[in-house]
Specification:
The strands form 2 sheets. Strands 3-4-5 form a 3-stranded antiparallel β-sheet. It is built from 13 helices and 5 strands. With 479 residues, the protein is mostly helical. The protein is elongated and about 125 Å long.
């Protein structure tokens, strides 16, 4: 969080520069430090006991593999040790556009609200989406763990890579939820992890109806889409209704925006600006990580193809000549294939332990931005309600001061004022609770994600080191 604190101090002094850029000169002590200096401090150049402990814990406990590579993404997701959860056995269900993947969710949670022993349930992607939507409604202000996005094209193809990447991302999502001090106590989470398929279908529909937000888990794809469309339409008409109320009360929109600017703290404005910069930089880093991974894969194929062609040529030379040139070709071909295998292994490791974790980290930053958007919307609702109360109170006072005003009109205006006061109180309480949650959760989020990025970069350095040592060993190996 130190980078955020220093960034907020600069914002207070009027410095709106990019917090991730290096200072132009060493004399500018008030400039925010580069983000990489915060992440890599005491890690790449010193012995960090915390990282070593986590690495040892990961090596001892992680057993799943992805295409022959140790599955490392979920090792950075857990700070609460009283649980074990795994998403395993993805199975294709159905055919064509209605096909989907089901997963077996195996969990053991040592909390009083959970039953003892291991539980196994079958869930699909939309069930995970339902859980996240419920928590977004119930825990407003909390930065929720991110889910992988919907991808209609990849879902239709259902390649092994896509299925495995999604399985791992869903597992990380559940681990992060269970690691969170508030989210782990969610009744919806307990239902998700422990209810049978039939019970989950019934209860998820009931909860969705009560929350008025998440689509029922048992709804079909078409009805789920229709439900989301209706939800979007509902928000649209709600916005129209609120704006109409402001127009009716002669409240200009500029006044609402002025109140928003007045109520937003400089610290909060700094947080929003910080995450905008961080998302842009992290997106660029992720794109370069993808390029690196593809480059390793291309090198693997090139070396392997080169080695095979040399082997074929050595066989041809041997059949036509007694020269020992065929032996040299065979040796070089063998070394090239060994080098190709090394690059292939490093490409797989980069995907699992570097590129995929960076993608998940980028999704988490976008999740934080969605929480910020929720806070902004809640603030606007609160100000709307307050301004309408002021308008109705002024209208009532004017009626009461006007001689000859009918009593029934005054009573109606009083009822409208009381209704507006009630709504204003509700929106104020909702906003206050959201802000309190978010202010505390941002600190947790910053600390955990900084640790995640440190972990990812250390693994990248180790993968590259191992890759070049492996390829060098291949070329130095005697025939």
């Amino acid at each position: 969080t130190s980078v955020l604190v220093r960034y907020e101090e600069n914002m207070n002094e009027g410095d709106h520069s990019d917090p991730l850029q290096r200072p132009e000169s060493p004399e500018k002590d008030d400039s925010p430090p580069p983000y990489e200096s915060i992440i890599l401090e005491d890690s790449l150049h010193s012995k960090n006991q915390g990282v070593e402990d986590r690495n040892r814990h990961h090596e001892d406990t992680t057993t799943s593999t992805v295409f022959g590579v140790q599955d490392d993404l979920d090792s950075i997701a857990s700070s609460f040790d009283n649980f074990e959860v795994n998403v395993v056995d993805p199975v294709k269900q159905g055919e064509g556009v209605s096909a989907y993947i089901s997963y077996r969710v195996v969990s053991t949670v040592h909390l009083d609200s959970y039953g003892s022993g291991q539980r196994e349930v079958i869930r699909r992607f939309r069930d995970f989406t339902w859980l996240r939507d419920c928590m977004r409604k119930e825990f407003a202000g909390i930065i929720l763990p991110a889910l992988p996005p919907r991808n209609v094209v990849e879902k239709y193809k259902m390649t092994p890579q896509f299925v495995e990447d999604r399985r791992r991302a869903l597992q990380v999502f559940l681990k992060r939820v269970l690691s969170h001090p508030l989210l782990r106590h969610s009744e919806e989470l307990r239902l998700f992890l422990q209810a049978s398929e039939s019970e989950f279908a019934i209860e998820s529909s009931r909860i969705s109806h009560e929350l008025g937000n998440a689509a029922p888990a048992e709804s079909s794809g078409a009805s789920s889409f229709a439900s989301k469309t209706l939800s979007s339409a509902s928000k649209f008409f709600k916005s129209i209704s609120e704006n109409a109320g402001l127009v009716q009360a002669n409240i200009p929109g500029s006044l609402v925006q002025q109140h928003v600017r007045n109520e937003e703290s400089q610290e909060y404005a700094a947080i929003k600006n910080y995450y905008n910069h961080l998302e842009a930089h992290l997106n660029e880093v992720h794109q370069q990580a993808q390029r690196l991974t593809r480059q390793h894969a291309r090198l693997a194929k090139s070396f392997s193809d080169f080695g095979l062609s040399l082997n074929q040529m050595s066989v041809k030379i041997e059949s036509m000549s007694d020269d020992d040139g065929n032996a040299h070709c065979a040796v070089l071909g063998k070394k090239a294939i060994m080098a190709g295998n090394g690059w292939d292994q490093s490409a797989k490791e980069l995907h699992v332990r570097f590129e995929a974790p960076l993608r998940e980290l980028l999704r988490s930053i976008r999740s934080a931005k969605r929480t910020i958007e929720d806070r902004d919307e809640c603030l606007v609702e609160k100000i709307h309600a307050q301004l309408i109360v002021d308008s109705k109170r002024s209208a009532l006072a004017k009626m009461q001061a006007t001689p000859g005003t009918r009593q029934d009109r005054i009573m109606e205006a009083e009822r409208h004022l009381q209704a507006a006061l009630k709504k204003s109180q509700e929106t104020t309480e909702r906003y206050t609770k959201l802000v309190q949650r978010m202010d505390a959760d941002v600190i947790r989020f910053q600390k955990e994600r900084a640790g995640d990025l440190k972990h990812i970069l250390l693994h990248f350095a180790q993968i590259e080191k191992d890759s070049y040592m492996t390829t060098s060993k291949a070329w130095m190996t005697q025939s």
